[in-house]
Amino acid sequence: MKNFLAIFFSLASITCNAQTKKIAGIFIMEKNARSAEERLDAMLALFEEYQSLNRDTLYNLALEAKQIAAKQPNQGKKALAALGLANAYLQWGWIDSALATIEPALANSKAYPKNIYFKIARSKAIYYGARSELEKALSLLFPALTDAEKAKDTLNSAAIMNSIGSISIERGKLNDAINWVMKSIFLAATQPKYKIILAASYTNAANAYYKKKVIDSAFHFADLAVSTSKAVENLFILANALRIRSALLCEKKDFAGAEAALKEMIAIRKLTGGDEFFIEDNLQLADFYANTGQLGKAIALCKKHLKIGNLYDTSGASGIVFANEPKIRLEYFKALSRYYKQANQYREYEKALEEIISLKDSFYTANSVQAIADAQEKYNTQKKENTILQQKYSLERNHFFLYSSFVYTTLLLLIAFLLFRDYRRKQKSILEIAVAEVKKNAAIAVKEAEEKERVRIAADLHDNLGAYAASMSANLGYLHPKGSDEQSNQALLELQNNSSSIISELNDTIWVLKKESLSLTAISDRVKLFTNRIRRSHPQTAIEVIENISTDFDFPASQAFHLYRIIQEALTNALKHSNADNIVVQIHAAQSWDVIVEDNGIGMTNSANHKTTGNGLLNMQQRARESGWNIHWKTNGSKGTAIIISPNTN
């Protein structure tokens, strides 16, 4: 507690009535303003520091600034005042209000300078990102980046690249994130006035390397982020950097250092208000509790923040923050699943896994992988076209100087030839574009038809076969024939087991049919659910799923189904034939991926039931062959068997 108070008062002593020295200086300018225009300029300068302002102060200033700006002729200042109010709404978590506030400013973007437009467009993308609508965020960022690069606006280009990197971290595309953030760092390092972007980029770099488990690089960028954010006096970025540093110190088992970083982070959040709003802060605090043997506190913290209700009811004595967004709830349930498993609370663990699967489905629907990829590809194509146009311009200019000495008649003939050739090229290009558009529309139509048919089949299976199977299973439970012999009872039991299996198989099939594609983590979650379901029937065998995924991979629905079925078959075979007391499913993914199902049983060579001609093994081989994968069995005498599935590298 003494350390906490020391940190708090050292931070509070920066200024008397403001969070930083920079803000205190601007407040003095605002109070000494001699006209409404001067006061508005001071307020707009304060809005540049909105991440370090107390949210109540920011909101009140923004309302006043908007009223003053409405009486001014300058459209750019009106747009910046609207942005200030939108950022105030963001600090309160009112995303809809933030979007509605800046929408008119974006619609009027031709009335003010381009650099203001870039700032507002990036802010709108940040608002979408705040509620995990990543596709919408990227659809704004990539066009804005193209325009900023055309305008040679280095500051906004660096800021937008950093935002794209942040979204890539959110999507789990860590290599892409590092690429974008490093581009941002390269641009921001060119000017001292870009240090605020540099601090944010260092923080994202530290976060990406931490998630990739490259701890030394993560520490390097975390230290840079802390020192740079202190230099620019940005409390939001400083708190984020301290949170990441705390996580890194936990990785190194330096819990005293991790606790100090957490306390400093909490003290900073309290200066700006709304410390309950930051999901990453809450999860880091929960992880700290879990790592220091306080699992009960970790679970209670996550459950507290999983309350659902009116998003605007986030202030008051209760201090409750409601978590309605699927992405926010997903992160809390991921943490809860880890803590429940660590605490051996398997029923709660299973419920958490089911919530994770459901929430990932919602998140997948809101963020189509294909749409995000299309947005990035459109940016790359536009960038290449700009380069080609620039090269063409340079070439034509060189030609002009080269042939300027030719006689007038020769020059006219050359120009006529070039114009004719250009006309032919354009006509050919128009034709090619038209053909490509027809092909693209046809492909989209086919894809949409396939998607509708896939969804229809899933619905039919669920509504018809699923209903009949569930009814059959329920009715079999009421059958208790009098005077039945052992054979009849056994047959009835077998019918009950078969009906339950039909329902499980239907659920697995419908799960796949509902998706266009599935990630490796989604398949892993389904495997965990399956192992948790069969664990009760095999109490003598320990079954564990070890997940080591630093780069997620997406699979078409058919391949995802094959991989899940192969793992199912491997687990079933091990339980039936291996006499093992321990089975481990290992799922690895980095540059490539592989899945290993390993038991400590009697080994294939000692089991008469494990023959390479068995239908189960042949089915596994057939599924792997259809998917373009390698599958092989590795036996270690009487010490067990391992089944390894990996992509075919040929």
Write structural notes for this entry.
This protein is of the alpha+beta class. Among the domains are: 411-514; 516-647, Heat Shock Protein 90 (2-Layer Sandwich), CATH 3.30.565.10. Helix content is 71%, strand content 7%. It is built from 24 helices and 7 strands. The chain has helices at 2-12, 21-31, 36-47, 55-70, 75-92, 95-107, 114-130, 134-150, 154-171, 174-188, 195-211, 215-232, 235-251, 255-272, 279-291, 295-304, 326-342, 346-366, 369-403, 408-476, 486-513, 520-535, 557-577, 615-627; strands at 517-519, 542-549, 554-556, 582-589, 593-599, 629-635, 641-647. A 5-stranded mixed beta sheet has the order 2-4-5-7-6, with helices on one face. The protein has a two-stranded antiparallel sheet with strand order 1-3. A hairpin with a 5-residue loop joins strand 6 (629-635) and strand 7. It is globular, with a radius of gyration of 30 Å. It starts with a helix and ends with a strand.
> What is the name of the CATH superfamily of the domain at 516-647?
Histidine kinase-like ATPase, C-terminal domain
Radius of gyration (Å): 30 Å
What is the number of helical segments per DSSP (H or I, 4+ residues)?
24
Describe the strand arrangement of the main beta sheet, using strand numbers: 2-4-5-7-6
What is the CATH class of the domain at 516-647?
Alpha Beta
Counting helices, strands and paired strands, the structural category is alpha+beta
Q: Please indicate the percent range of residues in DSSP E strands (runs of 2 or more).
A: 5-15%
Examine the secondary-structure arrangement and name the CATH architecture of the domain at 516-647: 2-Layer Sandwich
Strand tally: 7
Distance between the termini: 61 Å
Spans of at least 5 consecutive residues whose pLDDT stays below 50 are 1-17, 312-319, 606-613
State mean pLDDT (0 to 100 scale): 79
CATH topology of the domain at 516-647: Heat Shock Protein 90
Shape: globular
Main β sheet profile: 5 strands, mixed
Helix content: over 70%
